[in-house]
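Input (structure):
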């Protein structure tokens, strides 16, 4: 490892880039390796023009009919014409937003092409970006391997893990590819302490295997997967692998399953310890079932885990071998610190005087953190006393926040760095770490932010004081329910006005339209605000409201894909027809006919089928930023277009039969409004409410994307597909324990 003055780059196998100097260049670990979508072209606008023209043609006979039958129906037609045209424009825009962003799927039947594609992606994503470039300016530390005894299941012994024992050290320079060649079934377990270098060894294996697969068409292709995204499913580990290969690498599911059966893949599964603690036992069981399944006997597999977390599972694994990543030797540490020059004099002296500090620097992660923390301090600066791990992370974060130049800072139109200041970055990253830990997450997906992330009435940490009426409401209700109630109430008021106007015009013309719009805004806005903000505080009230507005705790949020559920569609139909009947009862009391009330109920029932029948598929997290939210909005746009087409067709058919076609049209805005309470509409609504709550509470900034970019530029966050995670889980735990209200300089003091 080398440190050369101010132009220093320190990187070790504990992380993809543990420590970097001000002039270092690094390519971060990202999944979104595809170029951004091309800008909208003329075809999009021609499509919009064709749809709007078709709507005008369909509405023309209805408008002409309304002009002959009375002013009330004329108002209905005019209002609905504006609503339909506007909603169509919005729906088409949403449907085509970032169209073509996702790459084309590589399908079965093109195995050679799929193989080259997977090799290219793995080499670009993991070998070049995550491994080679991040270590480009540093002299690599050689982190050794040793035998790990007691972790491998013996067919004639106990499957219970009694204890782990350290075996012999492997010869210097041994790589995982060398170990794999000696395994009978190409399956290996890699254990080590936090930051020891497990991931880097795994990526070196990926690099070696990419080279072997390019030289020999019969060699398996490495498939790197992060177990932090693991979810249990009916198809076990194979089903999850196929879903990840489709989502991350755009490999067709059938092709992946065929490769698993033929042994054409080498599975590199990183981070068993990163699986949610409640799911870790089931995840290991799924891996065990995969390893013992005769259908996958030919498939290679390497699994990494922290030693302590694996020991706690008390289970051996059915693989042919296990190794451990060795700690750094005293000679390696001394050599690295000696190359640091005068800047590291205080660190060298502290290591000699404090055995606890010397023991802490035996992992590449902490050694890199320590070197960068001291690299630009004045010579002779002492290390704060107390918890050395806490002190080193504090120095590291302080140095990263005050970098002279961010690694990849973007610029605004004026050419200035578009980034937050050190104090703002520190404040918001502390809260982000707290919110992630409270949700049990190590990866933060902005798309999946919901009010459940926000503090409730009894938060585990003291909140920053806020002023104003919203803050007073939040102290009573909690920010989770306050944001949902306020955002939902305002949107419901707007929807109530748009929905009430045509229904009022149906009965009493212009006067009825104005009164119904005002009444709809007040009533619907108040009901939604009180329901989500106040009533859902009571479990009983939430259970009673669930059939109409859905469950608030186990909420719907944005998803990259949505599936059709006939059972959910049936529930939506029944529920919304009942709501439509209630609306019809109100209309009858003010002069509407029974046929008109039935038409209103039919329109709402149609919306219930469309919105209620769509359920999110949460097995695949977004692979790009905004991917899940955009997919949900596009799904909503499709549903709105389908609803408009069905209502127009139904209105034409009803008019031909002499029925209340105007009532069917008048119910359209109300149906569209209620579609925001289920399916993709609710996903968008909850995301908007969560973003609003995070902003007004002060926990996260208005421009959340700017915070994430700023953290990434300062080597505190790193990209993982469509999400972000802290550089290391230990860094997240450190920031979680910091006090955001204190100045950044407090990081330099003892805990």
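Output (sequence):
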């Amino acid at each position: 490892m080398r440190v050369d003055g101010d132009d220093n780059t320190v990187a070790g196998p504990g992380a993809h880039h543990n420590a970097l100097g001000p002039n270092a260049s690094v390519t971060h670990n990202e999944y979104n390796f595809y170029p951004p979508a091309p800008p909208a072209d003329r075809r999009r606008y021609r499509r919009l023009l064709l749809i709007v023209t078709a709507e005008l043609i369909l509405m023309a006979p209805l408008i002409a009919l309304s002009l002959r039958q009375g002013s009330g129906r004329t108002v209905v037609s005019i209002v609905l014409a504006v609503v339909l045209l506007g909603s169509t424009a919005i729906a088409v825009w949403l449907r085509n937003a970032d169209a073509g962003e996702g790459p084309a799927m590589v399908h079965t039947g093109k195995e050679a092409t799929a193989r080259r594609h997977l090799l290219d992606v793995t080499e670009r994503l993991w070998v070049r970006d995550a491994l080679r470039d991040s270590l480009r300016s540093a002299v690599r530390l050689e982190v050794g391997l040793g035998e790990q005894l007691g972790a491998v299941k013996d067919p004639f012994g106990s499957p219970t893990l009694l204890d782990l024992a350290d075996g012999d050290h492997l010869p210097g320079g041994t790589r995982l590819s060398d170990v794999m060649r000696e395994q009978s079934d190409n399956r290996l377990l890699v254990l080590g302490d936090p930051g020891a270098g497990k991931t880097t060894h795994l990526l070196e294996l990926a690099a070696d295997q990419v080279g072997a697969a390019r030289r020999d068409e019969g060699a398996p292709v490495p498939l790197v997967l992060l177990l932090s995204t693991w979810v249990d499913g009916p198809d076990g580990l194979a089903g999850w692998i196929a879903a990840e290969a489709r989502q991350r690498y755009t490999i067709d599911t059938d092709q992946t399953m065929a490769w698993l059966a033929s042994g054409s893949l080498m599975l590199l599964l990183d981070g068993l310890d990163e699986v949610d603690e409640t799911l870790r036992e089931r995840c290991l069981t799924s891996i065990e079932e995969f390893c013992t399944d005769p259908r996958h006997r030919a498939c290679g597999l390497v699994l990494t885990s922290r030693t302590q977390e694996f020991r706690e599972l008390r289970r051996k694994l059915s693989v042919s071998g296990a190794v451990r990543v060795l700690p750094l030797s005293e000679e390696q540490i001394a050599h690295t610190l000696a190359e640091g020059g005068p800047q590291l004099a205080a660190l060298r002296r502290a290591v000699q005087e404090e055995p606890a500090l010397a023991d802490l620097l035996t992992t590449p992660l902490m050694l890199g953190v320590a070197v960068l923390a001291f690299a630009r301090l004045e010579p002779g600066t002492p290390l704060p006393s107390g918890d050395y791990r806490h002190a080193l992370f504090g120095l590291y974060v302080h140095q990263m926040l005050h970098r002279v130049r961010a690694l990849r800072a973007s610029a605004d139109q004026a050419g200035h760095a578009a980034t937050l200041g050190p104090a703002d970055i520190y404040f918001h990253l502390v809260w982000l770490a707290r919110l992630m830990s409270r949700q049990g997450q190590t990866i933060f997906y902005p798309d999946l932010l919901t009010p459940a992330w926000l503090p409730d009435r009894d938060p585990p940490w003291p909140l920053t004081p806020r002023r104003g009426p919203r803050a007073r409401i939040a102290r009573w209700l909690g920010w989770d329910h306050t944001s949902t109630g306020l955002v939902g109430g305002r949107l419901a008021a707007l929807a109530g006005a748009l929905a009430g106007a045509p229904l009022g015009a149906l009965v009493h013309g212009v006067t009825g339209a104005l009164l119904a719009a005002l009444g709809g805004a007040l009533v619907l806005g108040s009901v939604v605000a009180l329901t989500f903000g106040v009533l859902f505080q009571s479990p009983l009230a939430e259970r009673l409201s669930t059939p109409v507005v859905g469950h608030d705790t186990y909420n719907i949020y944005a998803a990259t894909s949505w599936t059709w559920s006939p059972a959910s569609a049936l529930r939506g139909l029944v529920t919304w027809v009942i709501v439509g009947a209630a609306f019809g009862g109100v209309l009858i009391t003010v002069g509407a006919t029974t046929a008109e009330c039935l038409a209103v109920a039919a329109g709402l029932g149609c919306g219930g089928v469309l919105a209620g029948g769509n359920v999110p598929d949460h097995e695949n997290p977004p692979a790009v930023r905004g991917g899940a939210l955009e997919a949900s909005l596009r799904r909503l746009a499709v549903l709105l277009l389908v609803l408009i087409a069905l209502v127009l067709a139904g209105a034409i058919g009803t008019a031909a039969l002499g029925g209340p076609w105007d009532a069917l049209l008048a119910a359209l805005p109300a149906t569209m409004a209620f579609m925001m309470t289920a399916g993709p509409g609710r996903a968008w609504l909850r995301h908007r409410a969560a973003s609003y709550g995070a902003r007004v509470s002060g926990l996260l900034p208005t421009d959340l994307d700017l915070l994430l970019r700023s953290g990434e530029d300062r080597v505190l966050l790193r990209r993982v597909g469509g999400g972000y995670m802290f550089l290391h889980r230990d860094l997240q735990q450190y920031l979680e324990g910091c006090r955001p209200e204190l100045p950044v300089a407090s990081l330099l003091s003892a805990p």
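Notes: Residues 1-41, 97-109, 133-139, 405-417 have pLDDT under 50 and may be disordered. The first helix runs from residue 42 to 69.
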